[in-house]
Each structure stands twice: as C-alpha cells, then as structure tokens.
Amino acid sequence: MREALGFDARELTPGVIRKITVLGAETRSFKRAAIALREADVNVSSKTVERVMHDVGEELAERRDTPPGREGILAQSPGNIPDLAVVECDGGRIRCRQPNHGPGVHLEGKGWRETKNACLIRGQRKTFDEDPQPDPPACFLDPKHVAQIAETEALSVASVSPQDSQSDSEDGESAPRKPRNKGYPQQLVRTVLASMACSKVFGKQMKREAKQRRFFEANAKAFLGDGLPWNWSIWKKHFSDFVPILDFIHVLSYLFTVAKTVHDDSHDAWDQYQVWMVGCWRGEVDQVLEELADWQTRLGEPPAGAEDNDPREILRTTIRYLTNNCKRMNYSEYRQAGLPITTAWMESLVKEMNYRVKGTEMFWNDPAGAEAILQVRAAALCDDERLIIHLQTRLGSPFVRKRNHSKLRKEKIIS
C-alpha cells in the first residue's frame, strides 16, 4: 500500500494528501502551507509538504503527456464544440538552484530560467457587420496608464533581475486593463499549462490539450502572443489554422517609446503616440510604417554596435517589430469577428503563476522541483477542477481500482 500511494501510508491518508496539495498550491510557500495545515489539525512539516507537492507534480506531468483519448488524461473533452477557442502563450521567469547542489541558495549564473505558460480558453463571442469599436478605449488614451504599461513591458523584455522577482500580488502593480467594449468575447472555461520544457516540447503539450478539448473543431479560433519568435513557431507548427493575433499592448508600448524618442517636447510626443496608436488600432499599419521610415531617414540608420537607447536604434527596432508582425495586426477585422486583441487573459494568468513560483526568496531545484510546482499550480488554476480530479483518481486513492491504473501504466509504456 505504501508503494501504491507514493508516500508513507502510516502518516498520510488520501484526504491528508489532498489538503496538503491544495494548500501547497495556493499558499506562498511550503512553510506557510504547513502552518495553515496545523490550523486544520494536520500536523506535517514543510519538508513533508514539499515531498507531497513534488510527487503530485510528477504525476500531473505524466497525465498531461497522455495522448488525447487515452485513459488517464485530465483534460476533459466537451460534448459540444466550442463557439470560440482562444490559445495564448507567453514566457515567464523562475529562479532555480544549480543542478545537483541540494538545499540552499546558489547564485552562480543568477539562477534565472525561462518558463513556458499557456492558457486555453473556451469562450463565447458576438460578431458584427462593422468594427464595434473603431476608436480605442479610454485606458489607451490615459498618459499615466500608458506610461505604466510601457515601463512594465520594457522590464519584461529586459528579463530583469532580482528587483523584478517580487510577487506581483505584493508590489501593487495591476495587469494591463482589458479594452472594455461590447464586442470583447466572454471567457467560459480556462485551462492552464506551464512547463520548464523547451518551446518545441511545450508546443506539443499545448496541441494535446487543445485537441482533447476539441479546439480544432471550434467555430472560431484565435492564437495570441507577443513578439517572441517561439510563440509564432508554435503557432505555425501546431495552430496554423488559428487566426494569429499580435497582442496590442506590445504594439502600444513600442509606439509610446518611439514617439518619446523622436520628439523632445512631451506634448508633441503624446500627440504623435496617439496618431500612431489609433492608426494601428484601426489596422492602418502600413501608414504608420511609412511615417516611421521617414523618421529613420531623417535621423539616419544606427551604426554597428549602437546602444539600445540610441534613437536611431529604437526606430529601427520598432520598424522591424511592426514589419515582422503586420499580418497579425488586422485589429479592426478581429473585433468585427468577435476575437480578442490583447493577451489580458494571459497577463492575468502569469500573475497568478508568479504568486506561487516567483519571489525574492524562492529558489527551486532544477529541473525537477521547478517542474513539479509549475504542474501543481497550473492544475490548481484550471477551471475544470483537474487538480481535485487527479487527487481522486491517482494511484492509492480509495475511489480508484488498482487494475485500471495497471492498464493505464502499461498504455503509457507502449506509447
């Protein structure tokens, strides 16, 4: 029985394991989970919480990688196809110890690793005969808010350092506001994926999840991301029949920065930003690119090795970004089709993930410990209760017959 559970059965029952896992996923640390558990009359150490989370995380990773349609997969296949299927992905950061160094803090190489995150949303939309919001929302015309967005995006692109490792829930920052308009689609069911895997492997994980949830059969399909090349590599290989949409927030940030670069006067810079932003909002990217090219001609091309803050380099980078992504910037058409144009859902998810996995004093064993906590936290954030379902159907659970799991394990070996 002890081997079936994966834990010491004399100490931990399935009910206790469930409490440990849920609190371990929702509290800021294993230590805090142990404190909360004591209040629930479960007296376990923080090391026991860590051990349980590690084992459950490994199990979740195995079930995540189960082929669609096989016994044991956690993603639920709905009875009817989605009206709208939205896939969004983004990179994150997690701080890890050096491999094979054991407990403690090991700062060589600063320990920062990239994570991959994705949310897959079953939604509902409205379609329109014309653009339901040809003018941008007020939040994109608010100088303070736009400056905050641009600064946040710049920090994200720079992959900053220990100061950025504070929990987003504690530093007072808020996620970029979603444009509020009557055409914005409604989120019905969200599921979450996260991994330390490379983009090639993560793309396969995303495809398995989408296939099981019948996303490829949806009436309307959208894939959103920022300018990271791996986002669009995943789209091209696995989701090429989804409408590709560049997150408008990133466009806004580039335009705000370049407008400040070409104008010394703050009022002129703000006026220029509004003109360019409205142009992109309405899908008039070619006109914006022409004006940026004129500015590049005036200031000249950047010399080799130019600094990132050189105005000529900022212009060149912005032009390249918009040129590479212009086919994903038909925002007026997307709104007309009832599709989202920002990764607001993804931004919200990243903050929820960061609450548990990212902080000034959080270091995870690389790669097993980091992968395990990502799996448990991602499962806890899914709307389909997959963490609870897993705990009720895992090996050793009183709700599961052992012979079913013998069959499941054999199928996994074969596949």
Label this structure with key terms.
disordered N terminus, five-stranded mixed beta sheet, alpha/beta, disordered C terminus, 415 residues
- Tell me the overall shape: globular
Beta-strand level of the residues, as a percent range? 5-15%
N-end to C-end Cα span: 27 Å
Please write the string of helix (H) and strand (E) elements.
HHHHEEHEHEHEHHHHHHHHH
Uncertain parts = 1-10, 157-179, 398-415
Helix vs. strand class: alpha/beta
Number of beta-strand segments: 5
Q: How would you sum up the major sheet?
A: 5 strands, mixed
| Relative helix content | 40-55%
Radius of gyration: 23 Å
Number of helices: 16
Structure, described:
- With 415 residues, the protein is α/β, with parallel strands linked by helices.
- The chain is 48% helix and 11% strand.
- The protein has 16 helices and 5 strands.
- It has a 5-stranded mixed β-sheet, with helices on both faces.
- The two termini are 27 Å apart.
Describe the SSE topology.
Layout: H1 2-5, H2 14-26, H3 30-39, H4 46-64, E1 84-95, E2 112-124, H5 143-158, E3 186-195, H6 199-212, E4 220-225, H7 229-238, E5 243-246, H8 248-262, H9 266-281, H10 285-299, H11 311-325, H12 331-336, H13 344-357, H14 368-380, H15 386-393, H16 402-414
Parallel strand pairs: 1-4, 4-5
Antiparallel strand pairs: 1-2, 2-3
